[in-house]
Amino acid sequence: MASSMVAVGLTLAAAGFAGRYAIQAMKHMEPQVKQAMKSFPSFGSGYYKGGFDPKMNKREATLVLGVSPTANKTKIREAHRKLMVLNHPDRGGSPYIAAKINEAKDLLDGQLKK
Prior knowledge:
The chain is mainly α. The chain has four helices and no strands.
């Protein structure tokens, strides 16, 4: 019984010293870690940052659908369909996002007809 208590005490002491060493090592490595993290591409960097404009314009519509500004009607409809399958409110998607996707498609389709 006493030997197991000594073993537990030594284990806890070793864990404490190891934790202290790890914390001190991290403090010394912090500038290098920050520099290394800057070199990695950030997650979501390919996505549009920012909210929606009050009135949708062509730039925002192409960003929402993920098509080029010169996309034809077929590309716009394919992109719209793909996004609506993923974001439809009947399948748990946001009604607001679905409305913005539809608004983007309508805006781009309307500009192609002109």
